[in-house]
Write the structure tokens for this entry.
Amino acid sequence: MTALGDRVLHRPVSAAQSALWAEQEYDPGTSSSGYFAVAVTGPLDPGRLRRAALAVLHRHEPLRSVLRVVDGELRQVVLDADDALSYDEVAVPCEAGAEREAAAAFMAAGENRRRWDLAAEGPVRFHGLAHAPDRRTVVFSVHHAGFDGRSKFVVAADFARALTDPDGLGPPLDAAHPADAPDEVCAEAAAFWTRVLPGVTGPLLVQGGREPGRTGVRSTATTPLAERDVAALRELAAGSSVSTFTALLAALARQLAWYGNDVAVLAIAADVSDETTRGTAGVQVNVVPLVLPCAADRAPGAALAEADEALARMRRFRRVPFRRLLAEVPDRSARRLMTQFGLSFPRPPRGLRLDVPGLDLRWDFFTANTSATFDKTLQVRADWPRGLVRLDYRPQTMDAAGAEAFAAHFHEAVRSLARSSGAPVARGVPSAPAEEGPAAPWVAVPAADPLDPPVLRPTSGRALAVLGPDGGPAHVGVPGALVVSDPADGSWADTGEEARVRPDGAVEHLGPRATRWLRHHGFIDAPLVARVLRAHPGVRDARVEVRDTGRRGPVAVAEVEPADPARPPGVGELRAHLRDHLDGFDLPGRIALTTTP
């Protein structure tokens, strides 16, 4: 620890802080932020709120730290609380009882998109929204480079104490980082995932489509689980001597099985604080992946046992640094596999005291998040006797309709497990209407946007259906095996193609099952890349395959046939065209121009 003058200190950064800082430097447009808020009713003035915010900053060094490169090394530079404080008062009139909506609207109007300069400002901004003389909402806008999900409860408790007595929080807390797992546990985790990952043949099958090229993080509406289902689920968990979180994980496994998954690679942003660091705000989380068997017909006791085993392994590996795990696992697709789906279970710690004499405080901790640690994150908040459910998702990996359906199906999965039924929700697949046409089983109608799959229309006397792995109709919006009926005898034949059924009954063609997902720094949707390339005016045809290039290992290669061999488009032009439509992890490693002799 080195002093700069009398006030500024240098401290080491954690691995999580380093990763978030690097992400911000690479793309300044990312926010990796969130917020929580408290509506305050009663006699108070803005100065009292500002003094409480200042006391919280003084107490927690990470909240008044900036991230700067010092002597070639990234460090936390701890500022004086007065220098780090960002507090403003904004007039936001609203009716009593509408404070939560007013805070959400304030954030959506600009604060959620406002970039953070981590070298100049700390990871928390305070906003005092004045609704009426005796009503205000304090919004805590936070950046995850210095603030994790656990920290909001720590800060909330200290802010409430500071409103009572701004001098009563005590001296600053040392910003230490929890210890990593021992080397032997890190090696065990690397060996486990080295064995497991090669058997994963594609991303999770989930509801709905994707919106490649769209950025940011979106969220479904927050909906409460039925109190009857929550009570039954908690009773089931208690009877098996497992936690409610274990039962929720088992319900998720059942839902993923309905979609056709037999195993899921999930991840949890786990709290790794210990008794010496738990009371300090900052970044004390680690991404911990887990592998979960999925079966729709598993008896409740067996489903809970499998979920409990997965969580036990997660707890053993929870302090294995995620970056170290990725470095030691040889599978280059590991990061994409381990961050495709997250499960979060935020709940206030026991004994949390948030009361302030003479004031009415109503806290909102379950708020929108712009951080995209995982492609999709199922948020389930403990609010017993209810539970609140929301899905946060990146539109590159899921569309809005699919996200809302996923959240609704989780409600069904909780009910199914709580009431000891393995039956999935209704999955009717209407047959597309027969039409006159050529002898081929279907006619493909391209979509206007190459990101959308073509719609298949069966020819005369034919019918199309999409089946899941159990041979029954696949969930609407979930990829499955495309089968076609024989007009002669009405039998069904597997086409070897993959498709999905839209809510309106139309069948969308996703491409050959065997070569749809190609493993290359994750999984590339090969038919999607080919469709986007064919949309370029200079391209006649395109296909994508993986080739072994020797020392570099397998590389996804796009073969492109120019529309005019005499004037083929340039490789750079084609790559720019792909980048206009797709995200970086969807791009092939190479583009090769071919000509027909």
Confidence is low (pLDDT under 50) at residues 1-6, 426-438.
